[in-house]
Specification:
408 residues, alpha+beta, FAD/NAD(P)-binding domain, D-Amino Acid Oxidase, Chain A, domain 2, 3 domains, 8-stranded mixed beta sheet, binds flavin-adenine dinucleotide
């Protein structure tokens, strides 16, 4: 054998892979190696998101999103409290600006309660302004269990604990090939080193479908990258927002609509929108990837999705190029906001799985293969839910791979 054998290799060092490594290392008597392509952990979705600990308001009751968000949120708060990770359970408001949206708020409140949320309150205009004096709407929902945190910091802390429990983490190693031979996975990497393992978990985020294909699977989804672009409020206008202000989401999409978020490190972010990215790590319109585009265009679901949503797609694109239009969307929630209050912020790219029929997969999706597990859809709120997803992966790995639990 030309490489050191491990019981398990995890591909991808975002918060999902690292949370799974931590839980597996603590719970199971197995040797674990996590490989991350970039020089540091949390380089993509995990390190470029809104930093919101989601409450679980939006998700279909009974779905994996709903269950893991609820469990993950509370476990996350406990972890932050015990380990001294900066965070805040600051709550948020979802603002209805029309009567039609007000009716949707009532439905959201019902969903929230079905998902086990407590303390949700329907507010009138005065009640909204007691929380957010500059917001304007006919009604709002106050959701006290929402919070903020830095998910990169959390990933780092999970990684430290995984290592203390015996997991090995290597960064700067991209998996480029996978051969299953004599009951073992043989992985090729971009640094020329080969790695072997009895079992494999794929948490490669924007590349999870490609990694599944490397492993010989033909998953019935393709990752379509949707960029979310942010502005930040100029510091002198930050007093317009206390905490988090959200619109009523369009129920046809898994994205929440541009909103205001206070960051745990300070400052107010506005966004993200949702535009098609021309590359999996396409953080601006300048980033194009021929291979990624070919993968997208050759997927029948991409065209079916386009046929359904081209109108919304064009509007989002227009807003991406027009700061005025972006400011107008924000001014629906806080009318005092002007184009001149915004300065360019960062961007993140969502790994959204789309099926052959052009449907955007709503729930988390984990595919089982021979001696392997592939996380093929882990969009928001997967960062919030990461500890619960880590636990789910651990349970499935124990059942599927026959890992033995540590005693005591
Ligand atoms: C704009 C935006 C806003 C969001 N806001 C929130 C929010 O407020 N709250 C929330 O809960 N969720 C939010 N999310 C969702 C959340 O960020 C993701 O669900 C979560 O980070 C997914 O984690 P992950 O580990 O699956 O993926 P990632 O963080 O993308 O990690 C995957 C890792 O795999 C690595 N990798 C890929 N291919 C290979 C390979 N071949 N070999 C080795 N490594 C590889 C990548 O380099 C990457 O580091 C947001 C997402 C975006 C994009």
């Amino acid at each position: 054998m030309d490489c050191k054998l491990r019981d398990l290799i995890i591909i991808g060092g975002g918060i999902v892979g690292v949370a799974a490594a931590r839980m597996l290392a603590r719970e199971c008597s197995v040797s674990i190696l996590l490989l991350e392509a970039e020089k540091h952990l949390a380089a993509h979705q995990t390190g470029r998101n809104s930093g919101v600990i989601h409450s679980g308001l939006y998700y279909r009751p009974g779905s994996m999103k709903a269950k893991t968000c609820r469990e993950g949120r509370e476990t996350l708060y406990r972890f932050c409290e015990e380990k001294g990770v900066p965070h805040e359970r600051c709550g948020k408001v979802v603002v209805a600006v029309t009567e039609k949206e007000k009716a949707q708020l009532a439905e959201l409140a019902r969903r929230g309660e079905a998902n086990g949320l407590t303390g949700i309150r329907l507010l009138d205009r005065a009640g909204l302004q007691a929380h957010e004096p500059h917001a304007e709407g006919v009604a709002a929902l106050h959701v006290p269990e929402t919070g903020i945190v830095d998910f990169s910091v959390l990933t780092q802390r999970f990684a430290e604990e995984a290592q203390v429990s015996g997991a090995e983490i290597r960064t700067g190693v991209r998996v480029t090939g996978c051969e299953f031979r004599d009951g073992l996975f043989h992985l090729d990497t971009d640094i020329g080193e080969r790695f072997c393992a009895r079992t494999l978990i794929n948490t490669a985020g924007l590349h999870c479908d490609e990694v599944a294909q490397l492993c010989g699977l033909r998953p019935d989804i393709r990752i379509i990258p949707f960029r979310g672009e942010y502005y930040t409020l100029k510091p002198e206008r930050a007093e317009l927002v206390n905490h988090l202000i959200y619109p009523v989401p369009d129920p046809r999409f898994p994205f929440l609509g541009v909103h205001f978020t206070r960051r745990i490190g300070g400052g107010i972010e506005a966004g993200p929108n949702a535009v098609l990215a021309m590359k999996r790590e396409g953080y601006s319109w300048k980033d194009w990837g021929a291979g990624d585009l070919a993968s997208m265009l050759s997927w029948p679901g991409f065209w079916r999705m386009g046929a359904k949503y081209w109108n919304t797609g064009l509007q989002e694109m227009y807003r991406s190029f027009s700061r005025r239009s972006f400011a107008r969307a924000l001014a629906r929630l806080v009318p005092e906001i002007k184009e001149t209050d915004l300065q360019p912020g960062g961007a993140g790219v969502r790994a959204q799985a789309v099926d052959r029929q052009g449907r955007l997969l709503d729930d988390f999706h984990i595919l089982e293969g021979k001696q392997m597990l592939h996380v093929l859809n882990a969009p928001s709120p997967a960062a919030t839910a990461s500890l619960a997803i880590g636990r789910t992966i651990t349970e499935r790995a124990c059942a599927l791979f026959g890992f033995s639990r540590r005693k005591g």
